Request: fold
Amino acid sequence: WTFLIVHCDRVTVSGLSINNNLLIPNSDGIDIISSSNVNVSDCIITCGDDCIVLAGYAHHFGDPGFKNIMKPSQNINVSNCILQSRSSGIRIGGWDQNNMSNYNFDNITIFDSNCGINITVRDSGSVQNVNFTNIRIETRMHTGDWWGNGEPIKISALRGVPGSTIGIIKNIYFNNITCRGENAILMYASEETKLQNIYFTNFDFILRKSDLDKVSGGNFDLRPNTVTGKEIYKSDVPVIYIENAENVYFNQGSIAWDGVEASYYTYALEAVKVNNMKLNNMTAFPSPSNPKLKAISLKSCTSISGIF
Reply:
């Protein structure tokens, strides 16, 4: 079952346990839609779809109950939760028309999931001012047609519907975060929009070998969208991939590998069309399967500085 909070104000959810079947899609845990001033704490959630969803639907593909709900989604706090999903542990956004802002996540564990944190813009609604503190993420690839392909963090903004402006993703902060996953930390925006002000402080990122490398490895998954060639597609895989962003900061952390062998594993960090990126007090190495590569790859980037 799914716990729905739609068009609400001043709601508290605490101590909830949800144990849905991991093999059943569309079985979200808690969905908080176009609501404000919500506190969620001390929950344990296992489900086949997203564990916790924060979204800003004004309408949603003709679904009953979503007709011209013009209400921003804001001021939501989630703390002390344990999450397991076949999609995303935490999903923010999607096909949203209302803006989403002022979210705080603290002391969250995500394990055995297709995707850890998934921040998505596909319509006019924007996502701004989101804080993640004390986060532990473990992801892996799974067989089957699940969205997500082992990414610990995925932040993406690209067209999902025709005839609408595309919102932005701005001011996203990660502090004290560990990720151990079987695919890249993926940050991507189309030319219509941009990722702005993304900060990582006190981080430990490890990309590990997967039992499904030969079946599902070497791919990026940006579903759902309407951009040709940008759904699930073949790619080399660094630990961190960033494209079309500005003001990206990495401070005090490490980027490492665990047992990878495939030739498509490449750089510690690959940046394309990034303006103003700073790397400070961090360690980073290329993949053991490509040791002659540089740790950092920069393509069409400007104002890059740092010590690593």
Notes: The first strand starts at residue 3 and ends at 6.
